[in-house]
Amino acid sequence: LGAAWSPTLETRRNHALGRSGVYATIRHPIYSAFFLWALAQAFLITNWIAGLSGLVGFAILFAFRVPRDERLMLETFGDEYRQYMRH
Fold first, then answer.
1. I need a labelling partner for 82 at 20 to 30 A (CA). Which of 23, 27, 37, 46 fits?
2. Residue 3 contacts by C-beta under 8 Å, 6 or more apart in sequence?
3. Which long-range contacts (CB under 8 A, 24 or more apart) does 20-23 make?
4. Which DSSP category does 27 fall into?
5. Statement: the pTM of the whole predicted model exceeds 0.90
């Protein structure tokens, strides 16, 4: 995403919907990467409470941010994003 990525949910002027590269296969690759990181942490840290805390953190991120992210994309890109979701 380069300059289009932001830690906050916002679109930029001339924001385009990414549909190539990893986005051709995975709709939210950064969330997928966070999930894999949290899963790896659970297996690599010998303290299970600390290890599983990453999965809890990811679950909170996923539950609260992804629905807002989806709404923003639908508001910004409309039918183009709906078609991308179906793909």
1. 37
2. 12
3. none
4. S
5. no
Chunked in runs of 10, what are the mean pLDDT values of the chain (87 residues)? Answer: 71 79 88 93 92 93 92 92 92
Q: What is the dihedral sign for C-alpha 59, 61, 66, 68?
A: positive
Q: Residue 85 corresponds to which tokens in the numbers above?
A: 């979701």
Amino acid at 55: L
SS3 6: coil
CA distance 31 to 65: 10
Q: How many residues does the chain have?
A: 87
Q: Which amino acid is located at 77 in the chain?
A: F
Distances (CA, A) of 12 to 6, 22, 31, 77, 85: 9, 21, 20, 12, 21
Mapped onto helix, strand or coil, the DSSP state of residue 46 is coil
